[in-house]
Amino acid sequence: MRDIAHFVNGQAFNGASGRFGDVFNPNTGEVQARVQFATDGEIDAAVQAAAKAQIGWAATNPQRRARVMFEFKRLIERDMNGLAEILSSEHGKVIADSKGDIQRGLEVIEFACGIPHILKGEYTEGAGPGIDVYSMRQPLGVCAGITPFNFPAMIPMWMFGIAIAVGNSFILKPSEKDPTVPVKLAELMMEAGAPEGVLNVIHGDKGAVDAILTHPLIRAVSFVGSSDIAHYVYQTGTAHGKRVQAMGGAKNHGIVLPDADLDQVVKDLSGAAFGSAGERCMALPVVVPVGRKTGDELRERLVAEIDTLKVGISTDAAAHYGPVVSAQHRAKIADYIQIGVDEGAELVVDGRDFHLQGFEKGFFIGPSLFDGVEKGMKTYQEEIFGPVLQMVRAESFEEAISLPSEHQYGNGVAIFTRNGRAAREFAARVNVGMVGINVPIPVPVAYHTFGGWKRSAFGDTNQHGVEGVKFYTKVKTVTARWPEGDVEDSAFVIPTMK
Ligand code: NAD
Predict the structure, then answer these.
(1) Contact assessment for residue 449 and residue 469, using Cβ atoms and an 8 Å cutoff
(2) How many structural domains compose the chain?
(3) In the structure, which protein residues have their CB atom closer than 6 angstroms to any atom of ligand 1?
(4) CA end-to-end span of the chain, whole Å?
(5) Which residues belong to the active site?
(6) What letter does residue 351 receive in the DSSP assignment?
(7) pTM for this structure?
(8) pLDDT, block means (10 residues), the chain with 498 residues
């Protein structure tokens, strides 16, 4: 059995805890490797190594740091196919989607290549007589990232790409379900020229997360995962004096106005609801058609579209999506479907009986469609995170806008319409962090920022873009003068700018 080790101070590090997590191949259902879980002492050793490395790295000029990011980008592009294969084999998403996962992370690295420009501070000449004021952004020290299973390449790169470019060192605690690609990313950062200790990967579960949240040398923690854990991470990390951003779960709605191009909407919904088996925080698992006619037409077309979907193993180039990540997760999705039936929603397409010939033990589940889903239902209120599309019918624009606005989650939302004024009003009023207008998965580009509202994110600062730079730096402001001539009298009142 292959063991997946930690990566500390530039090399593989075998821990001695004797605790492991199973890493499955979701296509076959077999355990393909086991990942070591770190002890508190091992995590402390990684943090100490990171703290030591950070001093020299912060003193390295930003252009040199950017060169490492440029080289890292080249190396990832060189290794793209191999990385995508590993990612698919542990996560279950199809190869093209794994490449998208890596590419979206690379786009943050491209942003980080411009860090010398982004880090330039502010300067005021002559703020007072002979006085100049300038401010600069300095790195925090050792930062940490705790990431979910569903984007094992993109989300680590959202975090360490920016954190390291601005001069921090980093401890990454990836999901224990698909930990191999994050280790490969750290190896590639070393090959790209990052000094040993600047990027470290330690594996584990809640124990490792707690060790990070309470470690006195870790200054900031970025978390992405489910909401209850995000909330816990936010509370525990901030109680220990850390800066914390903690992104949580989601239940994104797609609003379909009567004037929308339904041919396009059906294609968009199908990809956004069922792509990656629905295991995306920016998936669209809820569709809200406005008006009975829109709902009826949409339902008919969706049923036909779902019939064309191919579920297959992650290396099948013709498959639209592959297995979900684990047997437990598959069971959880099937349970939610049953709850939906029990609470009175109409199960129009039932994906639970799907089996892939030759891969009977794989974690596959077919696409499901519900109609008649209502606001009070548990299956509407909670995140299912699987290939299940729920139709919640609305009678008016007002009712449609109130649904995502009042939902506990506020990650993303999309509106489909040909009416620019309605779309503009929707974008302005909806109580959700990221909005798509005829764009089903409105993940902002790397130089903008990513972050939801309500229980989809705890903390004030988004991921990547300028917000990411702010999260991983602190501002220092210098007021300077160079007196000459006679000694001035002591001043006992606060200096002001008259
Ligand atoms: P998860 O919350 O189970 O795990 C996330 C991380 O927390 C992992 O590293 C895991 O090891 C760790 N963890 C697990 N249990 C813990 C505990 N009890 N205490 C402390 N840490 C713990 O999430 P997941 O299943 O890996 O990922 C799916 C979830 O992530 C979904 O809810 C999805 O919506 C969310 N997600 C959100 C975003 C976003 O940006 N808002 C992006 C991707 C995924």
Answers:
(1) no
(2) 2
(3) 146-151, 173, 175-176, 205-206, 209, 224-226, 229, 232, 247-250, 281, 383, 385, 411, 452, 456
(4) 74
(5) 281
(6) -
(7) 0.97
(8) 96 97 98 98 98 98 98 98 98 98 98 97 94 97 98 98 98 98 98 98 98 98 98 98 98 98 98 98 98 98 98 98 98 98 98 96 98 98 98 98 98 98 98 98 97 97 97 98 88 84
